Amino acid sequence: MKEKRFGIDIDGTVTCPASLVPFINEAFSLNITLQDITKYDLAEALNISPDKMRIWFDATEPDIYSSSPLAEGAAAILSKWQQQFHLLFISARRRHLLEITETWFQEKKITYDHLELIGSHNKIEAAKRNKVDIFFEDKHDNAVMLAEELRIPVILFNTPYNQDPIPENVIRVDDWYEADACVQQWIKTNEITPLPAYKKA
């Protein structure tokens, strides 16, 4: 019987964080890598006007989402977890992108118990409503707010744009295999030990 309820972000967490880099390079005649995106705000990170970035993103969003590759290990670990836990995907994507999102999950063969596009980065109410026990996120501010407001552990997938300090119950991981190691420890002991305890040999 499934007991624990996992809240899971999609972009930069289930999808590869570098998914939008080729689109950025093509649109703005750049030659960047993910390492060059050191802030979550793309306009600020790339010194592009916010209006220009917003117009581009609104137009390109469906293509980015429909073609995003999975993050390393996501398929294997989520498939494993599906047998044991409730998987509740809670994303800041806007609701008109639901069909594209559902199709992507079907194509990637990722099953879930709940999928919610809230159209906002504030995931606290959705996480409360869905009685989430642990959350998986890539946005630093979201991770900190969820951990502090809900007093739950949050797994933060390490990226160049989320390197600000984190509280004790936010744990950084480099991939889904490390996330799974954290989860297994949490299930056994009700605690999560910060890295580097889970670093792969």
UniProtKB/TrEMBL annotation:
Documented EC number(s): 3.1.3.-
**GO molecular function terms attached to this record:** 5'-nucleotidase activity
Domain of life, source organism: Bacteria
Keyword list, A-Z: Hydrolase
Kindly identify the residues recorded as the active site. Answer: D9, D11
> What top-tier enzyme class does this entry carry?
hydrolase
Gene Ontology BP terms: deoxyribonucleotide catabolic process
By its UniProt entry, which InterPro entries does this protein fall under? 5'(3')-deoxyribonucleotidase, 5_3-deoxyribonucleotidase-like, HAD-like_sf, HAD_sf, Nucleotidase_putative
Pfam families on file: NT5C
Recorded family membership: Belongs to the 5'(3')-deoxyribonucleotidase family.
Q: Which PANTHER family match?
A: NUCLEOTIDASE YQFW-RELATED
Q: Mind telling me what this protein is named?
A: Nucleotidase
Q: Which organism is it from?
A: Domibacillus antri
